[in-house]
Amino acid sequence: MNTELSIHTNGQGLHEITSEVRQVVQDVKIADGLCTLFVRHTSASLTIQENADPSARHDLEQWLCRLVPENDPEFTHTHEGPDDMPSHIKSALTATTLSIPIMNGSLALGTWQGIYLWEHRSDTHNRRVLVNLLSSNQ
Amino acid sequence: MNTELSIHTNGQGLHEITSEVRQVVQDVKIADGLCTLFVRHTSASLTIQENADPSARHDLEQWLCRLVPENDPEFTHTHEGPDDMPSHIKSALTATTLSIPIMNGSLALGTWQGIYLWEHRSDTHNRRVLVNLLSSNQ
Amino acid sequence: MNTELSIHTNGQGLHEITSEVRQVVQDVKIADGLCTLFVRHTSASLTIQENADPSARHDLEQWLCRLVPENDPEFTHTHEGPDDMPSHIKSALTATTLSIPIMNGSLALGTWQGIYLWEHRSDTHNRRVLVNLLSSNQ
Q1: pLDDT higher than threshold 60 for residue B138
Q2: How many structural domains are present in chain B?
Q3: What predicted TM-score, i.e. pTM, was given to this entire model?
Q4: Least CB-CB distance to B36: which of C32, C34, C63?
Q5: List of chain C residues whose C-beta atoms are within 8 Å of the C-beta of residue B126
Q6: Model confidence band, residue B26 (pLDDT cutoffs 50, 70, 90)
Q7: Has residue B90 been placed in a domain?
Q8: Residue C54: domain span
């Protein structure tokens, strides 16, 4: 079963979607199975990161922006703006898809894990994330 | 169900396999489920990237080659050639496995998404990619 | 079906878990399906890498430590020690989850592929890795 989430982003950074995904899993009432997330874009990605201290996400975002700076003189794919080519590279280095086990009807995330949509473009966007659910007990 | 694709590569770069994967999905006639790709090598990987403008893939490949240069004086694993150790690192930074939802009998890729085998070795290779299909309606 | 592995790590580096995962798959007697691994932490990750020559894993670990050095003056998330923020970044750049097809009752790894838990912290830890199994023949 697939459910599409539409996530509004407002510039670069990590946007938490854990509660939206949890809601989809709860609604379907799968006791034991697998939840796979898939982002339908190549300039945004997914990550599971620490959900407690926002400074970890801040440093993660800043580090990646330093690793993949805009206005690299070697870039040839530049007509969509200076944040476009870095966004493709950042997506390739992180995840387009994530699979999380479902146990006892819930996502089996660790205590400190949250699910994030990682927006790599500067402008506002509506990002589509598919939530695919498979049951072990069909 | 698993189907193995054999992909001939001719040096480093992104090799599109979207149509081969779509064909496997269509042949099996799964209406709703999950397609998982798995590359059976540690010197080639998988990515989902923009399928429109080839300059994006060119810049992505060039950027990764600059991040992980050959002939790093710290490398000790050098007996298989200068492109060997960078190929393992590039594989670790990208994806060995990808999962794409199946909706209405088709891969639920976004409009601009293509599936690529990313060859990291310089020589020609035949790369084996498994296409694993699971149905939600078994 | 989900089985949790508890993996004891003793400092940074790649810790092979292939045999532990193979054992879980064999015990469940799934002929054809999908095995998904999920690490329940944000400072350790997963990778599939060459299982033959240990020098490849040594160089991989050293390269990533050079890419993400400790004591970066830009880091603000520093109260858990100098290896904490690099561990989150290294996790984001590698994999929290991996899916491996099951064929003929076994993991369909390539000849030279091993599964590794990648510990990014310096201290000893007990790391929890979920092994999720789905059968194609339910």
Answers
A1: no
A2: 1
A3: 0.97
A4: C34
A5: none
A6: very high
A7: yes
A8: 2-135
